[in-house]
Amino acid sequence: MSEKIGVIEFYERSKSIPVIDVRSPGEFEKGHIPCAYNIPIFTNEERAIVGTTYKQQGKEPAVLKGLEIVGTKLRHFADTARKLAVNNSILVHCWRGGMRSESMAWLFETVGIKTYILEGGYKAFRRFGKQKLAESKNIIILGGLTGSGKTEKLLRLKEYGEQVVDLEGLAHHKGSAFGSLGQEPQPTNEQFENNLLYEWLSLDITKPIWLEDESHSIGTNWIPDELFKTMRNATVIKVDLDKNVRIERLLSEYANFDEQHLENCILRIGKRLGGQNVKSAIESLKNGDLRNVADITLAYYDKSYSFGLNQRDKDSVHSIQFDSDDPEKNAKKLIEFAKEHI
Length: 342
Prior knowledge:
Oxidized Rhodanese, domain 1, 17 helices
């Protein structure tokens, strides 16, 4: 007999047991638990047919229509589950932990697979995850002007045992007009949230969690309100690094991209740069003077970031000066600085 389990146990078991999402392909593509496989009971079209039957004729006719559709698929479902099962066990969920997951669990159990159902389904996973985001108050924000190498420093902190969540990595975007360059396509916003929630469940929220200072949006993805509100009130450690050093980093990160792509990125912030600066930046780009392009765009980004930082409580912002762009050395310095000042 299948067993219903809560989100935490489901999460822990998902590290070693496959997760089967039985929702329709459309639901799955919009957003799913990161490690899940999709074995949909109904296609998008079939789900619509059953839903329409339910609305027009009631539950019993809808169930019968569902059985009619599913009948020929049972062998395929069972064979797929057998291939995916680990230690003859599997995890299953649907939207609310109702008929779809229970029906599939019955089938898997019938063919001898131990099956665990996520109580409350996908909806419960998202609700529980967002609750954990809201409860997380021990957050350290790593700030700094564009080109300070914040992401690389965060990844170094993680190597040294600190709890770190790379929001830009989850969003496949570096957060600026140039942020999509070299990145994979961004996930749907729901999927971005799910990736974040799943990673957040691995954290000890009583201990410090490091995040990069971000706007509410990262490209087309939005940081959930439950977390963003806390981020805006959290302690900030602001990295201070010489502008010339920052320009060198930007050149190493962006100089190899196609000229047209870089021009398109400049034009995206054209109104905020100002006509003369746009003209100068594009001329420099065409002349191969990428250093001047970086210098011009940094003038805008530095002003924008400083404005946002000034909206915070000044007592929550701590500055740390680095004399070089050495991620390993600077990460160690950040850890010591946090112990002393936070």
